[in-house]
Design goal:
disordered N terminus, alpha+beta, ten-stranded antiparallel beta sheet, six-stranded parallel beta sheet, single chain, binds CIS-heme D hydroxychlorin gamma-spirolactone, 15% strand
Length: 740
């Protein structure tokens, strides 16, 4: 316990009392300062001569006992401006007023031009050593443990937009390795819209809101986006993934991640191989359905952010395995006829299996959103010895863009000194001065070589862990602005993607295209995109055209057929159910002993039970209502159990029956219960009932013999639900034939 007679900043506290027990009233005495959290204290910056600077690493912001000015003077009042008398004018001399308001006026920094909305967490990466033969990166050696920080994001929306929009998701990981920081700045989609970075401003301008009215926010369902896509055949593959269920993930925890580009690994002997990075979520790949995603945008725009933070807080740490597809590093940089430098192409896992090289566990939430999630700066050029880039023209442009954007966003060239961006390897640079310089570099000779600082810092050789650029051959050629011919096929992989999906996934994709194109005003754009779809798959085109009321065009090009890749499907596998949320509708009629049993079984299965009651407070004075008919919506739950009578309350049951006229012969139920259940049913979620619950399902129009409806005694409910939830949804309930 720290000395209570001094504050965190070492000043005496006259008569400081012992800390008080928490109370609802506003505290009147200062409490013991909280110890700094690890993320409030970044690693030390080392001066050019290797000497720790000794400067305090971070301020005590909001951890000491007394409020101070930015200069550390204690304040007696922060609620009243200094005035010439209680009714008089405010005085210019009030430094605290001006400092407080000025700082507030400048609190916002520019949001990211893309990926503005994000959520992040800390964790650890543990390597299994499988990559030791192909890379000398120390953090991939067997059992090496490396701290990581991961930021997930949407691409198009502003910082305050909704989480569950249809969009690509960013999946950026910072590995704080002993040999320097490695950033794997990927997405949840393994291909990109464009093949050359020079087109990035074009695709983003097209996807962002229209520049005249600045609408729509965080949507691709508008004319400029589809104008661009329909004019760019290379964008068809990425767009196909966006229109699939991958565009609306259930959770960040259930997303795959991809490094997209091909990277070059180099081992201790200097041998190289080409790889593609994959993140495989331990919980499986799961998505929302479109109506559900739209409802969530209104009910809980922070759905993904909340889900990630809640899971980590509850100790249900999300995990991903990191894997690589490995290809021989040949002069052609091709594999199975696929150009490895083309970022619009995948290599199907059936042709090159993903080999697992380690596991990442996210186990700590952020302490301060701005300091960490907002200020973190990723860069695909942050590499470590053993990992190098290839000539993929998209990646090459990215190597310029990320440092450039941070100059504006984070206000200067020293953003690497912000705590979240500080490497955990010792930094010994000569990057002096500049805005917000935090390091106190010493020495007199910030140049290389020098004699005045004893030659320090010295350069390292490969044997001392230096990053050595792989001397990859560069073909003799002409300066040109063109792509290789092997980048030309833009249709065979989108076709392969569509044909690899199960019928229900194909149907969702068809609906998504029909929705998005249906939102375009310009018919020419719809027609042009239909032509693209016809080139990809005639049935896809015909079904979208039917939905739009247009005539499907004939294919304009001959496209090669590739074998379907079952690895691209989300449906058809069984996954752990950890963290699934089960809503339980309960009321005064519920058998509370059975309810206890069911809740305990859900807990034991690592899922989350939430009681939904007619109103707040406690049921029968015992069971806390965690949601009410007013605050609950089906979208929060993966499955719903009905354990009550579904009425607003015992008192008004008769009046509800009377109002409804009871035409169906079923008891009248609260309309919000009916909405909750019919939505869950429509979104193909598992439903269960016992006691009065079966009649509530029937009164909501839900057939008791439909797939995924469990009506049994309470002890059997959770095992049956677990079985259904391992498939994510009751797929048979979607109105689509189950075989192609
Ligand atoms: Fe990018 C941010 C992923 C192409 C330029 N990008 C950004 C983020 C992710 C990606 C996940 C958010 C990082 C964070 O959470 O802070 N970007 C990708 C992927 C791409 C890609 C997987 C293709 C394979 N990006 C790309 C190109 C360019 C950029 C071609 C420019 C030529 N990206 C940026 C940027 C951003 C960015 C403007 C905005 C904020 C930032 O960098 O730090 O520089």
């Amino acid at each position: 316990m720290a000395d209570q007679s001094t504050s965190a900043d070492g000043l005496p506290i006259p008569g400081a009392p012992a800390p008080q027990a928490p109370s609802l009233a506003e505290p009147t005495e200062p409490r013991e300062p909280l110890p700094p959290k690890p993320d409030q204290d970044g690693p030390e910056t080392v001066s050019p001569t290797g000497v720790p600077t000794g400067a305090p690493k971070t301020s005590n912001a909001q951890s000491g006992r007394y409020l101070t000015t930015a200069q550390g003077a204690r304040l007696q009042d922060t609620d009243h401006s200094l005035k010439a008398g209680p009714r008089g004018p405010v005085l210019l001399q009030d430094h605290h007023l001006r400092e407080k308001i000025t700082h507030f006026d400048h609190e916002r920094i520019p949001e990211r031009v893309v990926h503005a909305r994000g959520a992040a967490a800390h964790g650890v990466f543990t390597a299994n050593g499988a990559a030791e033969g192909i890379t000398r990166a120390g953090f991939l050696a067997k059992d090496a443990q490396t701290p990581v920080f991961v930021r997930f994001s949407t691409v198009l929306g502003s910082r305050g937009s909704s989480d569950t929009v249809r969009d690509t998701r960013g999946f950026a990981t910072k590995f704080y390795t002993d040999e320097g920081t490695f950033d794997l700045v990927g997405n949840n989609i393994p291909v990109f819209f464009i093949q050359d970075a020079i087109k990035f401003p074009d695709v983003i301008h097209a996807g962002k809101p229209h520049p005249d009215r600045e609408i729509p926010q965080a949507q691709s369902a508008h004319d400029t986006f589809w104008d661009f896509v329909s004019l760019h055949t290379e964008a068809q593959h990425h767009t196909m993934w966006n229109m699939s269920d991958r565009g609306i993930p259930r959770s960040y925890r259930t997303m795959e991640g991809f490094g997209v580009h091909t990277f070059r690994l180099v081992n201790a002997k200097g041998e190289t191989s080409l790889v593609k990075f994959h993140w495989k979520p331990r919980l499986g790949v799961h998505s929302l359905v479109w109506e559900e995603a739209q409802i969530i945008n209104g009910m809980d725009p922070d759905f993904h952010r909340r889900d990630l933070a809640d899971a980590i807080e509850a100790g249900a740490y999300p995990q991903w395995d990191l894997g690589v597809q490995v290809f021989p590093d040949t002069e052609e940089e091709m594999f199975a006829g696929i150009d490895l430098l083309d970022p619009t192409k995948i290599v199907p896992e059936e042709l090159a299996p993903v080999q697992i090289i380690g596991t990442m566990t996210l186990n700590r939430n952020t302490t301060n959103y701005f300091a960490e999630t907002e200020q973190v700066a990723f860069h695909p050029g942050h590499l470590v010895p053993g990992i190098d880039v290839t000539n993929d023209p998209l990646l090459q442009g990215r190597l310029f863009s990320y440092i450039d954007t941070q100059l504006t966003r984070l206000g200067g060239p020293n953003f690497h000194q912000i705590p979240i961006n500080r490497p955990h390897a010792p930094v010994n640079d000569m990057f002096r001065e500049g805005f917000h310089q935090d390091a106190v570099h010493s020495g007199v000779a910030p140049y290389q070589p020098n004699s005045l600082d004893g030659g320090c810092p010295f350069l390292a050789g490969a044997d001392m862990g230096a990053f050595i650029d792989v001397p990859a051959p560069v073909a003799e050629s002409r300066k040109v602005r063109e792509n290789p011919a092997t980048f030309d096929d833009h249709y065979s992989q989108p076709r392969q993607f569509f044909r690899s999906l199960t019928p229900v996934e194909q149907d969702h994709l068809i609906q998504a295209y029909t929705f998005e194109l249906g939102k375009c005003y310009e018919e020419n754009i719809r027609i042009r995109q239909l032509q693209q779809l016809a080139n990809i798959d005639e049935r896809l085109c015909a079904e979208v055209a039917a939905g739009l009321g247009l005539t499907p065009p004939a294919p304009a090009v001959a496209v090669e057929d590739a074998d379907p890749s079952p690895a691209l499907r989300q449906v058809g596998k069984a996954w752990p159910v950890d963290g699934r949320v089960i809503g339980i509708l309960a009321d005064e009629t519920t058998d509370l002993a059975a309810l206890d049993q069911v809740r305990a079984a859900i807990d034991a299965a690592n899922m989350v039970p939430l009681i939904i009651a007619p109103k707040g407070g406690k049921l029968a004075g015992q069971v806390t209502a965690q949601r009410t008919y007013l605050t609950a919506r089906s979208t929060e739950f993966d499955a719903v159990i009905v354990a009550g009578a579904g009425r607003h309350g015992a008192d008004d049951a008769d009046s509800l029956d009377a109002k409804a006229g009871n035409p169906s012969g079923h008891p009248a139920i609260d309309p919000r219960v009916a909405i909750l259940l019919t939505e869950a049913y429509r979104h193909s979620k598992a439903l269960a009932a016992w006691g009065p619950g079966a009649a509530v399902l029937a009164a909501s129009g839900i057939p008791g013999d439909a797939p995924g409806i469990i009506s049994t005694d309470p002890a059997q409910i959770v095992p049956a639900l677990t079985e259904l939830l391992s498939q994510h949804r009751v797929w048979e309930r979607f109105p689509v034939a189950q075989t192609a």
